[in-house]
Amino acid sequence: MTALAASLAAVDRVRRGLRRRALLVAAAMTIVLLVAATLALGLGDYPMDPWQVLRTLVGGGTRIESYIVWETRMPRFAMAVVAGGALALAGALLQGLLRNPLASPDLLGISGGASVAAVVGLLVFGIGGPLLAVVAFGGGAAVAVLLLVAAARRGQSGFRIILAGIGVSFLCACVIDYLLTRSKIEQAQAAYVWLAGSLNATPWWQVATVAAVVVVTLPAVLLAARDLPVLALGPDAASGLGVRLGFVRLGRVDQEVSLPAG
């Protein structure tokens, strides 16, 4: 009983340390975010000092300052925060799932599949607006399922998924280059703008759309993320503990969100 109590106490100390470190990191990131918000909302062709920004945010300021902050700069900053957080979450899930720090949506070809679908929809079918983002999401999800099917024949090894994803990524890049070279210059330019992405002239409805997607999928991501520590023990140990590897991996990879780049 003494040894068991000592082990439990050690585990409890480790957990408290992890929680404390998580709180410190969250507090530091919050401070960095506030500083970045002050700079982002104050810099530009119409510079504003931090006091002007704060006064405008609480309802003061002139009409010009209110318009610049709330209608021009704040949507860009909000989109950067929401989209950046979603992409960071996607990368963390993939790295935890495949147990490889190099795993990312672009390396696995998921971003490439979304780009191919978007370019085809834009150049071939003339799709634009919010529907183009839906088409891009479908392309990324299709590549994710293709990777799982390709790697499922021999145990769904993380290394096989990564190798298959690298091949799919290069294939998608070739398809995009071919479509761009065969299209008109105006269409190719529009496709390049969409692929490169931009936060310029971001309206609030786009921020609300991306935020809604993140909010809807976040509970499912958090629920599924409970199995990641078990998966870190290896596929054999995870299977022995009752984790359904195919189901978990399908849930993780298919939860990659393809955000509208343009």
Could you explain how this protein is built, in words?
By secondary structure, the protein is mainly alpha-helical. The chain has helices spanning 2-42, 50-57, 63-98, 110-123, 130-151, 158-181, 185-196, 204-224, 228-231, 235-240, 245-253. α4 runs parallel beside α6 (158-181) and α5 (130-151) packs antiparallel against α11 (245-253). The longest helix is centred in the N-terminal third of the chain and has 41 residues, at 2-42. It is a multi-pass membrane protein.
Reading the helices and strands in chain order gives: HHHHHHHHHHH
Largest sheet: none
Look at the helices and sheets and give the structural class. Answer: mainly alpha
How confident is the prediction overall: mean pLDDT? 80
Ends distance: 62 Å
Number of extended strands: 0
Shape: flat
Low-pLDDT parts are: 251-262
Task: Tell me the radius of gyration.
Answer: 22 Å
Helix content: over 70%
Strand content: under 5%
Number of helices: 11
